[in-house]
Predict the 3D structure of the following.
Amino acid sequence: MGLTAWNIAVVGAGPVGLSLALHASRLLPQAAITLYDARPADRDVSGDPRTLALSLGSVQLMQRLGCWPAALAQPITEVHVSQTPASGALPFAADPEVRICAADLGVAQLGAVLAYGQLVAPLQRAWEAAAAAEPERLSTRFGTAVRAMKALSSGVEIDAGIAETFDLAVVAEGGVFAEQSRKAVARDYRQTAWVGTATLEGATPGLAFERFTRHGPAALLPLPPGPDGRARGSLVWCVPDDDDTVRTLSPAQRLAVLGSIFPAAAGRFVELTPLKEFALGLNAERSLVSGRTVRIGNAAQTLHPVAGQGLNLGLRDVHELVSLLRWTEDIDSALRRADWARAADRWTMIAATDFLARSFTWKLPGAALARGLGLAALQGFGPGRRFLARQMMFGSR
C-alpha cells in the first residue's frame, strides 16, 4: 500500500491541485510530490470572493483532508429547478418545478457554497504544514510557472526554468474557457454568464434555485449572511451573446428583471453587486491520460455552469486517481484504470450540460413546453428524482 517511490509533479495550486497533492501525500507515503504554481507564495488568497458550489461528495473529501471550513460555508438543504412560464404553458402546472430536499434523502445537506479563498486557504495551509514536516519528500514551487512539458518513454520532463524529470505529472491548472487553448472536444456556446452577489429579503436559508428562462439558465445559490445579517445569494445569469439583455440594464433594472425571473420563494432582490462577465463554452479532452500526464478538473473539462459540477468533477478525479495509485506498483496500469473509471461520470456530465446549454439556442416550437413537461414528470417520479440527486451529490458510480 503506497510503497512505490514515485516522483510526482502537480501543476496548479487551486482547489483541485492542492487537494490532489495533499491527498496523495497521505495515501502515497513513499511518493515524492512537487507542487508548482505561478502564483507567488506570499499572495494571500483567503479573500478571493469567487463562489464555489461543492456537492456532498466534495464536502466529504474536504472533511477527510481536514480542510473543510464548516463555519464559513452555507449548506444547501434544498434545490428548486424550475422554468419561467411560457406561452403554451402546461395546463396543470403553469410553473413546473423539481424539488430535491436533503431531508428526503436522509442527509443533512446536498452540498455547500463558500468563497474560493475560504476553501483554498485551508488547503494551502495544510499542504504547507505537510511540506514543512517532510521537506525531503514534499516540495512547493510557488511563483514558478511551468513553461513546457515533454513526454518521455517512462515519465514527463517539466521545464519550469530548470528541466526536471518525473514519473507522473498531474495538470490541474485549467483557467476559464475564454483563455484556454482548444481541446479535442470544443464548442463555443456564444453565451455569457453574468456573475455577482445579490442581497435578498425574505429568502429561505439553504434554498438554491436553477431557473430556466427563454434566454438561458439562471442560478441563485445561498450564501452565508452578510456582515449586516441580511440574506445573500450567488447569482449566475446566462444569456446569449446576440441577445444580451443584461449588458445594457441599469442596476435598478437588473434587480427588477431578476425579481421577475426567480420565483417568490427566492426572496426579494434588494441589492446587487457589479456583475462580472464570462464567456461560456465546452472544452474537454477525450481522455484524462496521455502517457504519464494526467489532466484533471478544468484542465480536463471546462463545462457550462448550468449544473454547477465543474469543481466537483475535478475533485472526483482526485479521489479516483489517488485511490488507484495507492493499490498498485504499476503506474501505467493505474492510469489506464483511472481513465476508464472516470469516463462514465465525465461524459454523462459533459453530455448533460452540453445538451442543456444548446437547448436554449433551439428555435423549435414547443421546446419550452417540452422542457416543462420533463420537469413536471421528474417531480412526479420519485426514483428518478432520487437518482438525479445522487448524481449531483456523488457523480456516476
